[in-house]
Amino acid sequence: MERNTRWTFDMTDFQEVQFEMNVLCDSTVFRYKRPSIASSETERVILAGNDSSIYVLNEDAAVRAPKMYDLTTIAVAPDSEIVFGIQDMTVSEGDSVAHSITSESGLKIDNYGNATHYNLRVYLVGSESDTLFHHQQIEIASDCSHKLIPDWRVYEDSLLLMVDQGMTGVFTDSIMLSNEPMPFICGNTDAREGVDIDDVVYLIAYVFQGASEPFPVEAGDVNCSGGIDIDDIVYLINFIFQSGYLPCDPNGDGERDC
């Protein structure tokens, strides 16, 4: 995407239940995803090239319902990449949310509308040892900004979150988020509640279309083979539709084998 250029994407007539778009903007990569989208919806996303920002709007008066999306943002630096994963962000009708990379390679989230929440994943790639940060259900108030500042040299296994209540341009509060353990359910490839057909669709997209990997990746190795391929898709389909063995229990003895 050309620098200092504003782009507006209006998309309609969706043929699939999932929608994903990838945009390279300066030294930032955005991967925007709707895990569930109806063919009748109208999707609007705005990219502002001057400040590496993406705006997600819910202007679909015909649907008149909140929409949920995921956003992966990769901030590319000379010696590292910081990957921010925002998942299950809900935007009410008439509201919008902006995501911007800051000068210190942090992520700023501006919530223009009702209070909502999001799940967070942050990776530091390219350092001596890769770093993973994970936190669930972070509340963001109405008309509020969050600024996520990752600096593990200072905070070790924590992440500083600055809060601007009312979006006045001044951050008046801060929260230190501690790294949470990464629990997962084998077969729950999309990191949402339960194991169902959506997890099969997610795994198919990963194996055949190069889409996002399961998080954590171990959740997709349902047959305990040490990798993820078509056999895991077949295994998961058998479990869901034919009462096959539980994910991660290929021996069928009720004990997890991987």
Structure description:
The protein is mostly beta strands and 258 residues long. The protein folds into 2 domains: 6-178, no CATH class; 183-258, Orthogonal Bundle (Type 1 dockerin domain), CATH 1.10.1330. The chain contains 3 helices and 14 strands. The strands form 2 sheets. Strands 1-4-5-8-9-12-13-14 form an 8-stranded antiparallel β-sheet, with no helix packed on it. Strands 2-3-6-7-10-11 form a 6-stranded antiparallel β-sheet, with no helix packed on it. Strand 10 and strand 11 form a beta hairpin. Helix 2 runs antiparallel to helix 3. The chain starts with 5 loop residues before the first strand and ends in a 16-residue tail after the last helix.
What's a concise summary of this model?
This protein has 258 residues and is mostly beta strands.
Taking the sheet with the most strands, its summary is: 8 strands, antiparallel
Determine Rg (CA atoms, Å). 19 Å
Element-level helix/strand string? EEEEEEEEEEEEHEEHH
Number of helices: 3
- Give the tally of structural domains: 2
Structural class by SSE content = mainly beta
What is the 3D shape? globular
Unreliable spans: none
Question: How far from one another are the termini?
Answer: 43 Å
Strand-residue proportion: 35-45%
User: In total, how many beta strands?
Assistant: 14
Helical proportion, percent range? 10-25%
Please give the order of strands in the largest beta sheet: 1-4-5-8-9-12-13-14
Mean pLDDT over the residues: 84
